[in-house]
Each structure stands twice: as C-alpha cells, then as structure tokens.
Amino acid sequence: MKTLHCLIARLRPAFPNRVNRIAIPSLVAAAALALVQPCGAAPFQWEETGSLDIARLSNTATLLSDGKVLVTGGQVAPFTQVASTELYDPATGTWAFSGDMTSARWGHTATLLPNGKVLVASGFNYPNRLVSAELYDPASGTWTATGSLAEGHFAHTATLLPNGKVLVVGGLICELYDPASGTWTVTGSLHEPRGDAHTATLLPNGNVLVAGGFDLPLGDVIASAEVYDTANGTWAEVDSMAAKRGLHTATLLPNGKVLVAGGSDFVHTLRFAELYDPTTETWQSTGSLDTPRFEHEATLLPNGKVLVEGGQKVTDMPLSSAELYDPLSGSWTTTGSLGAARSSHSATLLPNGRVLVATGFGGGFVGYLASAELYTSDGGGGVTLVSAASRMTHGSAGDFDIDMPLTGPSGVEDRQKPADGGHERKDFLAVFKFDTPVTSGDVSVTGGNAFAGTPIFSGNEIQVPLLDVSGGQVVTLTVSNVNGLGGSADVDFGFLVGDVNGDRVVDKADADLIESHKHQAVDGSNFRDDINLNGVVGVPDFNYVRAHKNTHL
Predict the structure, then answer these.
(1) Strand 488-495 vs strand 411-413: parallel, antiparallel, or unpaired?
(2) Residue range 464-481, pLDDT digits in tens
C-alpha cells in the first residue's frame, strides 16, 4: 500500500526543464587587470524579479534562442490546468503573455528544437492524458498542432537527440518525434516500463540514460537504469542505482558522469547521491545532500558545480534551502536560500549568467506561486580571462596563436597577410579565452589605431576581427560585460611586421631565424617565421624582414 506521502507527491510531480547554460556574475582577469563588480545580487544570493501573471506549478520553462524564457501551461488549482504561456525577458526582468496553447495541460514536456521552435507534448488535462502535441514559433508567437502521439504520457521525459529527433519516455511505450515530418513513431521498449518520476539524461556519446521512477503497472519506486541506443533504437539494462528513488534530479557533469541526487522511495526522503559512469556503466556513491529533498531542481553552473534548490522534505512543506555540489571534492555545501520556499518549480540558466527560478508550490497556506527569483553565483571566482592571443591562418598548416600576456609588456604580432590588389591587408583576429563558455560581451579599441569588428562567440572564446591595424604600434583592447554581467579588462596587442623573435625590434637576428628555417613547412616551432602566412618559411618572409629593418615598438 502506498503512503499518503507518495500519493500527494504524485499529484504535484516536478517536471524539470533541464536546459543548462551559464551563471557568472563578474569578469575576472589575471592579476592587476581592472574589474567592475556588476550591480544586482551579491554572489550566492537570490533576488526577486518580475512575477508571472498566473500562479502555477508543474509547468515547463524553456530557454529560447533569443535568450528569453517560455513558460507553458501548468496546474493552477487541484485538477485544473491552463493553456496560457508567458515569456520572461532577462533584459527587463518582466513577463509578457505569449498566447494560449491549443490545449490546456500540465505534466507535459517542452523541448527546444534545432529550428528554434518549441515542441510541447502530451501531459494531463483532467481527467485525460493527452495524445496531442503542438509547436510554438517564437518568430510569430503562435501555436500550431503537430502530429499526435500513439499514447498519452504524463510526467514523462523528452530528450532532444543528436539527430534532431525527440525521445519521449514514460508509459508503456517510448516514442520518437521527427521535426522534419511532424510525426511520431514508436521506438524500442524499456525492459522495465516506468510511468513517471524518472529522469532522462543525454550522455556525451549521444545515448540516453533513464534512471529510477515509478514502474508499471504497480507504481512501485524502482532503482533500475537503462540506456537508449540512439543508433539502433533499443534499450540496454545497466547497473541499478544503490537506492530506489523517484522525483529526483539527474545532471550531466563536465566529466561525462551523471549526478543523481535526492528523491523519494515512498517511505523516506533521500539525502543520498550517486554518480553514473558511462564508460563502465556502473554507479558509485558520492557526498550526500545536506537536506533530504524531492521535487527539487538541479542546475549545472559554469564552474562545474551543481546548484540544487527547493523541493520538499515532508509532503506539503516546501524548502527554501539551496546547496552546491562540487564534483572535485564530491561534497555539498549550503548556499543562499530562496526568497520563497517552493517545489514543483522550474529552474533555467540564462544567457546573462543567472539562474531563473519561477512558479511552483509554496505550501498549504501559500498555495501556487507566480513569483520568480534570480540566483547569482560567483562561479568560484567569476568569469576568468585565461589568455589572449593573435590568431592567423598559415595556409594548409592551419591556425597558430601568438600569446598576448595579460600583464606586463605586450606580445608582438609579426605576421601580415599578403597584399591584395596592391593594397596592404592589415586585418587580424584577436582571441580572448575564458574558463567557461561565453555567449555575449563587448570588445572595443581603447588605445592605438585600429577598428574592432563584430565579436564571434565560440565555446570559451571571444574572437574579434581587428581592421586597419598599422604596424609599429601597441593596440589596447578592452573586453567587458562578458555574459551580460559587467566587468572589464584591458589587454595590449603589439604589432610589428618582421619581428620574428618578438624582441620589439626588426633586425639581423630576425633574418637569421628565417634563414635557419628556410624551406621548412610551418609547425608549432617556426610559425612566427612564416610572415606571409603561406605555410612555408621562405624568401618572401626574409624580404619582409629586410623591408622593415630597424623598425621597433
């Protein structure tokens, strides 16, 4: 017989939208570089932001391509659901109505597709499980129906696969959505079907780990885990977790392991956490949560730590506490508490670096929540500027970087693209590397004569074209407002064509270096000698040195 704890919990299951981005409050360069602390909450604190128009729980929250967050549906009273959707704008901290879905629903999923649209699938519209699915188009702000599922799912999971299809798990069958055709097909069945309260995690190899949850048809909590093979559409059993659990969280860590934390086994609320290793297909224990909890949320932060907040320890008594998991030490530490205790909420990492927590259940006297708040983490020291460089392409030999130290005298870029149509080509590429992925930021020329082009954001790098750069000068570049959270750092870039050895003067020593490497193909040891960037050290490079002899910085 199930306990009252279980039955109530299953009326308000958490449906995590596990889209993880980056949370960093400030730009920190190496020693002696200027910093500007951003406004807003101090590190490890929560602050209020705009509230939604409608209080709800068990809704979805999806980060869109433009950085806004789409909240859809949810439960607004026992056995009552809504079709309304709202958009959060991080720039203004406000919410705006974004139309109604074609069907009111809760316990559904929402998945951002590669084309920028959002797929909403299945869910509950009392007293029925829905087979319908629909698409949201951010460009027009409209909803349209798409193909229906073979069966209704509730409190299921939806995982975007590397091939662009969406895998839905939860119920007697598993299904795949194909955005190209707008149709669903049944795929391989789980060895142990589970109805809800499980987790699904996309692994680095493109397969999907499903763990725990409530089995079918009895609804007992289980510890089993299975991996879906995306290539052949089949499931394989892997080692079971040490603890039976449902209503837990599962987070993919930077090292490729999966952290499972908290949950309930129907009788106890769990503190126990464990790690799944895809290479060995086994589980191992790790540090336990400070506070047992279920129906919480977990978010991967940019420094590799995991933020867990809210949830319930005892049914109908939501928590406000939050804690951080450190994969390096395998331990948890408490962090700032939520402004409002909540469970069955959503948590989304924003492009500006903060974690948006919204909606949920606030307890018997509070009820359903419309409030939202933002978590600011210092990411273990903020966004750190690790290095800067001037990058040039040496023909088929590829790209090579000349380091530009963050402190002290500048590095020296000695290379220059060959003339085009009789005109000197004075364009370069400045590269700034950080300790975490970057999605926004500004770079400007604050010293010297040059023009900065439009920044390109690539993983942990900001790449900035530099145009009309005259030789024999130092150009100061100021990088600021990385990930929208303020902070600035100045880096000097030296430019002196022909200064092969980087001693800030073009002389016989540079010519001798080229002579000693003449006719060599470019590699990591001699690329500075290839001044004209053709991939081979040769006479044209020697001529560059002779033409610029006795010039200096």
Answers:
(1) parallel
(2) 999 999 889 999 999 988
Phi, psi of 334 (to 5 degrees): -75, 150
Neighbours of 425 (CB within 10 A): 13
Residue 138 has pLDDT above 70, yes or no: yes
Q: Alpha-carbon distance 388 to 410, whole Å?
A: 10
1: Cβ contacts below 8 Å, ≥ 6 apart: none
Cα angle 24, 29, 32 (rounded to 5 degrees) comes to 140
Tokens of 476: 């100061």
Q: Which segment of 61-65, 197-201, 349-353, 485-489 scores lowest on mean pLDDT?
A: 485-489
For the chain, give every residue range classified as CATH 2.60.40.1220: 383-547
Structural element, H or E, at residue 5: helix 4-9
Measure the CA–CA gap between 185 and 467, rounded to whole angstroms: 52
Burial (0-12, 13-18, 19+ Cβ within 10 Å), 521: middle
Report whether 81 contacts 60 (CB < 8 A): no
Helix (H, G, I), strand (E, B) or coil at 511: helix
C-beta of residue 23 within 8 angstroms of C-beta of residue 349: yes
Continuous segment of H or E residues that includes residue 9: helix 4-9
How is residue 534 written in tokens? 């053709």
Give the number of other CB atoms < 10 A from CB of residue 138.
Answer: 18
Q: Which of 143, 272, 200, 271 minimizes the C-alpha distance to 16?
A: 200
If you classify domain 383-547 with CATH, what class do you get? mainly beta
CATH class of 44-343+350-376: mainly beta
Domain with CATH 2.120.10.80 in the chain: 44-343+350-376
For residue 36, what are the contacts with CB-CB under 8 A and spacing of at least 6? 26, 27, 480, 486, 487, 488
Give the integer Cα–Cα distance in Å for 350 and 358: 13
The two tokens of residue 535 are: 């991939």
Is the confidence at residue 44, as pLDDT, over 60? no
Write down how long the chain is.
Answer: 553
Min mean pLDDT across 107-111, 133-137, 214-218, 542-546 is at: 214-218
Contacts of 261 (CB under 8 A, 6+ apart): 248, 249, 251, 273, 289, 298, 306, 308, 325
Residue 259 contacts residue 327 (beta carbons within 8 Å): yes
Q: DSSP secondary-structure letter at 396?
A: G
CA atoms of 236 and 224, how far apart (whole Å): 11
Distance of CA 518 to the CA centre of its chain: 46
Residue with tokens 């780990």: 209
Lowest mean pLDDT among 362-376, 421-435, 486-500, 537-551: 421-435
